[in-house]
């Protein structure tokens, strides 16, 4: 098993190997710093690194480094700046690796590692798609392997601070994506079985289920998103309350009359909110009484 970068020789970290994107055709693995240096020289390496050998990568990097050395002959052999690292080889050829800002792909890897998520190799293709799926302001709060029982697809279930998303990438490269906005999720809960666990989401009156082989993943996923679901529900209630016309203080005891058709429309909406579990029976009766007083 490779434990050191094939190019610079420094020990590999989990960030370098979490998704296997840094692997060369001859089996060598690059650390992320060397990968950034190589892709800065040849942008085609971003998606085709597996087609290049260590010899080809070394030639590309050394050629670029020789040109830099020729332009700055007076540059000292060893630099002490914390933002650059100089590496010397027996060939007396040297190059510098810049500590560049992490790419979006690296940021996503860091978020997956921070969640301590145990993902199987079967979802690697789906993980690769996250760079295209997630917006720049989205951060992963939960991620796990799961089966979408609606269509029996195995794939990747993830959640951000804005939504829940299920991904499945087929053998022919076709990507299935289904997302669920928190404002549409009425209830979320999980249940444990003998060999698996279920995550249940009530969405606009319909139940959506996902099965997890990892029981703890279902519980962690549920706990990660329930605060966002409840916050969205509270915002909806507040919006309904704010939509009620407010009378001046001295008229607070005199209900404002409204057109009967408008009142009946609001009653119908209240009934749907109660059926979907957004309003309790007490909240429904209270709002109903207020509307009936306006007839």
Please characterize this protein's 3D structure.
This protein is α+β, with helices and mostly antiparallel strands and 295 residues long. It contains ten helices and nine strands. It has helices spanning 14-17, 32-41, 45-48, 54-71, 104-114, 124-128, 130-133, 215-242, 260-275, 281-292, and strands at residues 84-88, 94-98, 140-148, 153-160, 163-169, 175-181, 185-192, 197-203, 206-212. The strands form two sheets. Strands 6-5-4-3-9-8-7 form a seven-stranded antiparallel β-sheet. Strand 7 and strand 8 form a beta hairpin. The termini are far apart. The model is unreliable at 77-97 and 247-253 (pLDDT under 50).
Give me a quick take on this structure:
The chain has 295 residues and is an alpha+beta fold. It has helices at 14-17, 32-41, 45-48, 54-71, 104-114, 124-128, 130-133, 215-242, 260-275, 281-292; strands spanning 84-88, 94-98, 140-148, 153-160, 163-169, 175-181, 185-192, 197-203, 206-212.
